[in-house]
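*** Fold description ***
***
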Amino acid sequence: MLQVQIQASDGTQTLVQAPDESTIGKSAQAEVRLAGWRIAKEHARLIKTPSGILLEDLGSFGGVEVNGERVDTQYGPLKSSDRITIGPYTLTVSEIGTASGIVQAASTRRRSAKSVNLNGENGCTAYCLKPWTCVDKTSRP
């Protein structure tokens, strides 16, 4: 599984858990959904391979940048410090259970596919990841 942190131009941050092959775009079928006129229905794709995570531009008009450099077709493997820019959004990607320190909590229930705001509103101490698997921020193993 992949963990995608999304930062909008207004500073709002969202954390999304996505499958090893995920589409980024505004389509309802996209695993990582972004909104806005500069975002294509299928804008880019993330692919986990044995050598790391690859980013593929799916030919969108607005394009994809990594660390300020435009991606022609593919870029990778991504590093945890790489910043992906798609329209007004900045994304960082990591694998769950690796150096990021995020460990998926066990859950047997499927929940809504929405993502959540990470700004700690209402005293929340948990990240809720797609599909709403919660990870406690205060007591990570």
Residues 99-141 have pLDDT under 50 and may be disordered. The radius of gyration is 15 Å.
